[in-house]
Amino acid sequence: MLTTPSALLFPGQGTEAVGMSAGWEAHEPWMDTVRAAEVHTGYPLRRLVAEGPLAELRFQRHAPCAVLAHSVGLFRVWREAGMPLPVAATGHSMGFYSALVAAGVVPLEAALDLLAAVEDLSEAAFAGRAMGMAFIIGASEMEVRRALLAQPALALSNRNGQAQFTVSGPVDELDQLIAALRPSALKVGLLPVRHPLHGPHMAALLPAVTRKVAGVKPESPAFPLVSHFDGRMLTTGAAAWDEGLASVALPVDWLAVVARLSTLGAPLLECGHGSQLAGLTRWADRTLLVESLQRPPL
């Protein structure tokens, strides 16, 4: 049983997997959370996370909702099992929405509405040109920034570690960047997303995104949230919700997050499927260990 207050890390899109629901269907808080997400979105999330097919689970509108509902459901199961409130929480990319819901800043439905608003507006804004994101592993930041000089429509969108980055922008230019960095990088390729998240292309959408969810009134968080933009501690509902609204255009700096986490002196727990954030945190600081909550409590 978990008795020591921890810092929780909520993973983002890309952690979805067929079978991720195994063992969780028997826990009422998980089932209630996923059912609520299904009712609100109309998506068959329980079937997708249990049976797939993977391509349908990874569909741009399904995957973020599945990850959000699953991660929040995990949190609620562990809380019912006696896990104390964390000393702080954060999330990587849309995983920050999971942290917002877990902390009680906004209800699950508000976070789902925010995801839908981003999707709707992105599809309309980028209909004329394919957009997306690329990952680069095993190249230095200087190498990446030097390669970006030849691709002015691209932006460095994630600093996930000392040698792990993502870039967002038009897919044709991402392909050129990938070709330029492939000889020197350990691994490089396109991510399964269709929008240029965490970059300046999304900034023009923020006023419309904000209007779409203008009725949401954030509550004070049950625990502080760590900004995935710069590692600030967000202690009010307004600050945390503002961060969530702006996060689609703000770059993710996991190095800054890890620097903040290292000052908390609390165990680190990944609240979601897989070990994405355990790996990223080790890339940023080899001394930090992240345990997983992906197995249901006994």
- The arrangement of helices and strands along the chain is EHHHHEHHEHEEHEHEEHEHEHE
The largest sheet is: 5 strands, mixed
> Count of helices?
12
CATH class of the largest domain: Alpha Beta
Question: Quick one: CATH superfamily of the largest domain?
Answer: Malonyl-Coenzyme A Acyl Carrier Protein, domain 2
Work out the count of structural domains.
2
Low-confidence stretches: none
Class from secondary-structure proportions? alpha/beta
Q: What integer value in Å does the Rg equal?
A: 18 Å
Annotated CATH architecture of the largest domain: 3-Layer(aba) Sandwich
Helical fraction:
40-55%
The percentage of residues in β strands lies in 15-25%
Average pLDDT value?
A: 96
